[in-house]
Design a protein that fits this description.
9 helices; alpha/beta; 8-stranded parallel β-sheet; binds zinc ion; TIM Barrel; 8 strands; about 260 residues
Length: about 260
């Protein structure tokens, strides 16, 4: 079985103490690739530097909505720095970017940063890794305004309703299934996962931030994407091997080329 963890904060605590050990455990669990997003210019720069020496790691650079705040000048400076990183050509995606109505900050400024970074993704022909919490109507309007040649969008840890799903621009969006769906009490998340088109799904952990049934938040690692795979398989009435095969093929269609 070959799996891809499409969203993992490998260089955040506690995993940053031993990323090579984390990756060795991931490989032992069948995880061939780990996608690591930055959340601002500093973490994106650091992820590119640290990821370069680690097999199977693919790094995205971006300004996360939780890091946007209210200072427009600082956001512009961050975006200019991120564009320089993209120009250097080692980032494989733009992320993590998006909208988050549940954090302190300016949602309008978040939307401007999102639009600017989606334009960067289009310019560099890279996919975008998108986070959205509590601002789905605004997300729909931003994505709906993208030009036809705009970027592929991976909506990580997707938590939108079936109605929202129907309103997204067809053909552009993919969905990350995270550990929430492994918890028996998360009935809405499990129903959402069952409603999504299987060919549009990829697996992720959002390690260490989203707990699974077996692993508490804070201790999650990319190896735990195997549990997400098994649970998605159970929810869809498929074998884990089939879910691994399909989701890994989809991940490789989003990010062609494979890891170094
Ligand atoms: Zn994340």
């Amino acid at each position: 079985m070959e799996l891809v963890d499409t969203h993992c904060h490998l260089f955040d605590p506690p995993m940053n103490a031993d990323p090579a050990g984390v990756l060795a455990r991931a490989r032992a669990a069948g995880v061939a690739e780990v996608w690591v997003p930055g959340v601002d210019l500093e973490s994106s720069t650091r992820a590119l530097a640290l990821g370069a020496g680690l097999p199977g790691v693919r790094v995205a650079v971006g300004l996360h909505p939780q890091a946007v705040g209210r200072d427009r000048g600082r956001v512009e400076a961050e975006l200019a720095g991120l564009e320089a990183l993209l120009g250097a050509g080692r980032a494989v995606a733009v992320g993590e970017i998006g909208l988050d109505a549940e954090v302190e900050g300016d949602l309008e400024l978040q939307a401007r940063a999102l639009e600017a970074q989606l334009a960067l993704a289009a310019r560099y022909a890279l996919p975008a890794l998108v986070h959205c919490r509590g601002a789905f109507a605004r997300l729909l309007s931003v994505l709906g305004a993208l030009p036809g040649a705009g970027p592929t969008v991976l909506l990580h840890a997707w938590a939108g309703s079936a109605e929202l799903l129907a309103q997204l621009p067809p053909g552009r969006c993919f969905f990350g299934v995270a550990g929430v769906a492994t918890r028996p009490e998360a009935t809405r998340a499990r129903a959402r996962v069952q409603a999504l088109p299987l060919g549009r799904l990829v697996l992720e952990t959002d390690a260490p931030y989203i707990g699974t049934r077996l692993r508490p938040k804070g201790a999650v690692e990319p190896a735990d994407v195997r549990e997400v795979c098994a649970e998605l398989a159970a929810l869809r009435g498929l074998s884990p091997e089939e879910v691994a095969r399909q989701t890994t093929a989809t991940a490789r269609a989003i990010l062609p080329g494979g890891p170094p």
